[in-house]
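Sample 1 of the test manifest.
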Amino acid sequence: MKSFDRADTIFRNEDVLREDWRPDAIIGRDDEMTKYHDALQPVIRGAQPLNIFLYGKTGVGKTVATELILDQLQDDAADYDDLDVTVEYLRCNSLNSSYQVVAHLINSLKPDGEEIATTGYDQQTLFNILWDELDRIGGTVLIVLDEIDNIGTDDDILYELPRARANGYVTAAKPGVIGISNDFKFRDRLSPKVKDSLCDEEIEFPPYGADQLIEILEDRAGQAFQDDALDDGVVPLCAGIAARDSGSARQALRLLYQAGTVAANQDAPQVTEAHVREAEDQLQREEIADKIRDLTTHAHLILAAVVKHHVQGGTPLRTREIYPAYQELAHEAGIDPLVLRRMRDHLSELALYSVLDRRKRNDGYNKGSYHEFSLAIPVETAVDVLESITRVRELEIGLRGLAERNDAL
DNA sequence: GATCCACAGGAAATAGTGGCTT
DNA sequence: AAGCCACTATTTCCTGTGGATC
């Protein structure tokens, strides 16, 4: 067995590359920061805060910018005795209704141990609890709702919160909302009354360009890696891939980190472009695997049915061909199969996640129109992931055997 | 241009879970 | 314990659609 030792030729301090690392300055977002700063100016004067709406894709600095600027704001506010600024940050990651957002918001405002249940109340009662809580805290309360686009069209909270004071629901508190959205279209989906009240100030964070990403990566790489641990082409390559793909600093950093890990695991003296390519491949595979893992058992069975056909050379497949195969697998596994309509939903979901390819076909008179599906990921990946899910392995579908037989061909 | 098929996918009803208040 | 409430996954029912053929 290989021994553990600290003589690392690659990393100096890899924490700098981790997702949760907070830089103490943000690179390449000067205009946005200026706008942000101006929008928060009323807070320091003790006035009712403006509502701010940030939008831009993931990994373009919205959350980091918010954390940095609100820290600064709280520091500066401490200089004034008559100012009391509270910041409450809530990730609306898995909250898909106003109700859920309010319930979780209350729980993060409440002292530990006094949390309430996140279901069971009617909406009005819940809002009343929130108003009481805000008044108990008092002063300026800035509420950051990150990934707020998750709540979809149910935007009651976004309507009520900014007007709580005007409507007399709260008297001691001055609430302000900072909404952060990954989805540009979210703003358009909001009801008109919300658009009015929420969007006093809007700041758009554009995707990073390759040059900006290089700057960001170099800044971190200097701290994270040993001197000369990176081949010259590595940073530009990571930046280039990320810029073309998403413009996301998160993706660029993840790629650089993974490339470093690959190199370190191989005991390579330096991180090279080949390591970056390999890292890119690994990350893509992981991403697909994570998506698949999160699906329900039925979706797994449906995917297994497609894999089975694929192995036997039968893709692309139309829905009506997949259904019996899925039913059979479900029966073998002792599970009641879903109705066709429901399987359609699962197929669309798989297509949405790019696990399956979906093509619309229309053969016209007497033939009708339908969808055709085929596997959009390598079979081995699909089989590996499915086999790695305990629940699926227990069902003993025998995918592995099928795949191996396929290899033999 | 009308027709017609095979399906996609919308809408509403239902089942089931967890948790509230009285 | 009974009666609500929110929410998710599912079933049931049904309307809408694209394009080759008539």
